[in-house]
C-alpha cells in the first residue's frame, strides 16, 4: 500500500457509443511511480478507458483527478477548458504507432512540444535527440516512419510520448502489432521506464510481461472492473472466477 496520495483517481467513469454501454462505472486509482496493467478480454473497454483519460473520447459521466490539478467531473456541462486540463497530464503510446508518415522521426518527436506546448525549438530538438539516443535510434532521426521497422517505429512512439513530459504514460497494447522478434526491444524500453519510476497504465495481453513489471493489475470485463489489486495477487491468486478463467488461459 503506497502512503502517497494517488497521481490519478478515476471515479464512476461511464461511456456509451449510442446504445452500447462500453464503460459502466470505472473506478481506478494510480499511485505515483506505479505500473498498472489493464487486462481483460477483447471488447471489455480497456482502450476506451485510456482514450477517455487522454481526452480522445469524451466520457458521459465520472470524475478524473490528477494530483495537483482540479478534479474534472464529466457531464453535459463539462467545458472544453476542463477537458484540456486533463489532456496535458498524460501521453499515449498507440498500438499502431500513429506516427505522422510525412514527417521525419525528429519532426514527429518535436511536433507536440513545439506546436502544442510552445516550447523553444532548440530545446525540444536537444531533448528529442537525447531521448532518441536512449532508445538506440540516434542515427534514424532524419528517417521517415516507412523506413523503420515496426519495433523502431514503436520506440519513436514512446519517445514522442516522453517528449511531452507527461505525468502519466498510457500504453495501448504497444506490442500487439509487432512481429514476435521485435516485441522484446519495445518491452525492454517499457521496463526501463518502469524502473526509472515513470507512472504508467498499460493495456496488454502480455501477461508474463505484466507479471514482471506491473505493481497493480486491473481486470476488466464487459465494461466493469471485475478485480483490481497487487499484481502478485490478481495474476497468481485471483479472487474472482472470471479473472481466474482469463488469467489461466493466458499464463
Ligand atoms: P478493448 O480495448 O478492451 O478491446 P475497446 O475499448 O476497444 O475494448 O472497445 C470496447 C467496446 O466499445 C467495443 O464493443 C467496441 O466496438 C466499442 N467501441 C470502441 N470505440 C468505439 C467507437 N468510436 N464507436 C463505437 N463503438 C466503439
From TrEMBL:
Pfam families, sorted: ABC_tran (PF00005)
InterPro entries noted in UniProt: AAA+_ATPase, ABC_ATPase_HisP-typ, ABC_transporter-like_ATP-bd, ABC_transporter-like_CS, MetN_ABC_transporter-like, P-loop_NTPase
CDD domains: ABC_HisP_GlnQ
Compartments (UniProt record): Cell membrane
Record membrane topology: Peripheral membrane protein
Single Gene Ontology MF annotation: ATP binding
Keyword ATP-binding found: yes
Keywords, sorted A to Z: ATP-binding, Cell membrane, Membrane, Nucleotide-binding, Transport
Keyword Electron transport: no
ABC transporter domain: residues covered: 8-247
Protein name: Amino acid ABC transporter ATP-binding protein
Species this protein is from: Nesterenkonia flava
Classification lineage: Bacteria, Bacillati, Actinomycetota, Actinomycetes, Micrococcales
